[in-house]
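Teaching note: in complex prediction, the entire set of molecules is handled at once rather than each chain in isolation. The prompt given to students was simply: 'Predict the structure of this complex.' The entities are:
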Amino acid sequence: MPVFESVTVLGAGVLGAQIAFQTANHGIPVVSYDVGDDAIAAARHRLDAIVDQYVADSGREKRAAAEEALTRIRFSTDLAEAVSHAGLVIEAVPENVELKRSVYAQIAAAAPESTVFATNSSTLLPSAIADATGRPDRFLALHFANHIWRQNTAEIMGTPETDPAVYQRVVAFAVEIGMVPIQLHKEQPGYVLNSLLVPLLNAGAELVLKGVAEPETVDATWRIGTGAPLGPFQIFDVVGLRTAYAIASARPDEGSQAWAAYLKEHYLDQGKLGVESGEGFYRYR
Amino acid sequence: MPVFESVTVLGAGVLGAQIAFQTANHGIPVVSYDVGDDAIAAARHRLDAIVDQYVADSGREKRAAAEEALTRIRFSTDLAEAVSHAGLVIEAVPENVELKRSVYAQIAAAAPESTVFATNSSTLLPSAIADATGRPDRFLALHFANHIWRQNTAEIMGTPETDPAVYQRVVAFAVEIGMVPIQLHKEQPGYVLNSLLVPLLNAGAELVLKGVAEPETVDATWRIGTGAPLGPFQIFDVVGLRTAYAIASARPDEGSQAWAAYLKEHYLDQGKLGVESGEGFYRYR
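The expected output is the structure of the full assembly:
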């Protein structure tokens, strides 16, 4: 018997769709909620593309099971109905604290008392939302990375109010759907991965801004020196330069502002957005 | 004809011996200087071990050439004589600015006018030594990493006084001995690699010190999230916890002091020094 017999994923964007697929692909029924028929139509296309990408990564023999997994995903545009039988709700709606709080207020009334709520938020701490859930002891963060089946970390972070037994059930769920559970004992902005990655990327940006070395040189040094497959600027290109710009421009310090201006002038204004646009610090294809 | 027809390496410690081997293994005659007969005897043993390690990494068919390379290394305990015919002197003596300045003052008088001097210092900027060389235009930093044939970066960093033509000759030399030249356009403490690595290691240390997650968890997150072979604490073990302690304890900020104290209490005081002692954050063999 699975840890949670039914899982509802709120939001069928890039990551929401991947979470729905990963869960269904491990045998668990999923309700995928989004705001309207257009969003659901987009989600169906996205899931087909996810299956193709998953099969490309994992082997053709995985296609039949992956397509069968899609049959375990039911779509809904009715928020109260979507959560009415959920054991676990994973919230992956846009990163807006007021929007999230409003969604939690609605599902708090509609979901069973026992339902566990988890936010996939990358940028908000769960304690910023906990009181809106009406069940802070059954609420925590469960954070996935893009390419969920390949970068298969699930960062699990409670608030001081999260019931330890609930936390452990979510750890067990993460394992059940093929994730490596990354257990955080305290709230930490950026969780573990971004707490490590951001200082590395900032250090690379600083070397280039100061004119110490070119991006290619910085990346080659990192790859050779540490054996990593990608240097900081290759990672910037994967993350996307619009995201890098948004993060840098939101920070008040001089270095971040200078980096944001550099990205805008040399990359964004020239349509160079990273891998997604075919060119960033490097050219692709 | 090689860029420099003869190379003298000052200091036959861990890295000095590797530099001598790497240079000789690319066909260039080397003079290996150290302070006395005991140091030279140790250097001979070290070079034999280097050949074994190199062959283990590179394949048995490389042994004959590697052993022949050793015949191109001549040992000397006479500093003036060691540099008297050198095209390039690579200084790899202990990281003490007064010692280095004294060595440069001696070789400035003994080496030909045209000889280029390069320091392998990890922790000093070349501008802190340049005036002692008597030839600041023919002086720069040429920084190698441990396991020189595998982590084959050569970070090349001049001072504002370094002649660009000399800089480019040293770049060409680095390529000639099988290195990837990492060209820094300005002086930068820690060069490129440590400018990236130190912030990553500090971020990992902070997560553990704050009690957010265990070292194994941090490392797993980094490996899965970035595809890197080693997480921060695996790197700490390779670098050696005494070195990590020395660096942290020399810094005045509270976080570094707390990390130094943590390393001392939980690792150094228990003989856990990292890979070198068989145990650090992890156990080895």
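Point out the following to students. Residues 220 and 231 of chain A are 7 Å apart (CA to CA). The beta strands of chain A are 7-10, 30-33, 73-76, 88-91, 116-119, 139-144, 153-158, 180-184.
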